[in-house]
Amino acid sequence: MTEANNNNLTRLGFSFQRGGAHTARTMMLEELGALLSYVDRPEAEKADYLRAIDEENCLGKRSGKTRLLTYRHLVDLYSLDPSIILFRALLFFWQRDPAGHPLLALLCTYARDAIFRSTASFILKFPEGSTITREALEEFIDDREPGRFSKATLKSTAQNINSTWTKSGHLMGRIRKIRARALPTAGSVSYALLLGYLTGVRGESLFKTDYAKLLDCSFEKAIELTAEASRKGWIVFKRVGDVIEVLFPNLINEQEMEWLREQN
Fold first, then answer.
1. Whole-angstrom distance, CA of residue 255 vs CA of residue 201
2. DSSP labels, 161-204
3. Rounded Cα distance, 86 and 90, in Å
4. What are the tens digits of pLDDT across the range 123-173?
5. Which among 182, 211, 240, 249 would be 20 to 30 A from 168, CA to CA?
6. Residue limits of CATH 1.10.10 in the chain
7. What number does CATH give the domain 186-263?
8. Is the pTM higher than 0.85?
């Protein structure tokens, strides 16, 4: 992608910074769930999430320093800013599709954490039932940027990344990680299609983006779940023969549509 396109996508919530929360944490699925249950108001603002974590200690952290660090990591992963469509749409589907929480969190993390994003091609290439060692993942990360991380950081980063892929359902096992299949839902498929749409993809190609590949499901299954989301009124899905249209009137505001028109 060009730098101009990256800048446009940054306005929508995507992140292309070299770092990533996974050098220190996993995708923090439990913390995100607890926070969104505690601040259960669609009109909540970013400051409300900070207050809940720091002043009200809704995540039960021991010190002020840990509370602020937790907040910063969650902001890195999810933005926690409802004015940004990536988070606003995450909230929309999160509230409507509890079974989709692991994949919804993973998709947002993928859009915002470059280190984690780089490992998708490594994990997804393994067939179901394969063993994936931490050492192999460390080697993959180190090969991409030789010498960037110390041995200790490489180890903890690989552990965090493996843990995230386990929470999302792509891996299973505590010590020995086995490739499994994630369980896509109507909400997680819709969110994946939205992320593709925001990057400029349209029509049938929405089902072939890197976001769609994270769903671990066939084209037919994705179509079925998209139709389900459309019936629920979450998105608009039209299909006539080979012509497919997916629209997001509940999610994309006028300003964002203007940005998308500029981008395209």
1. 19
2. HHHHHHHTTSEE-SSSEEE------HHHHHHHHHHHHHTT--GG
3. 6
4. 999 999 999 999 999 999 999 989 899 999 999 999 999 999 999 999 999
5. 249
6. 186-263
7. 1.10.10
8. yes
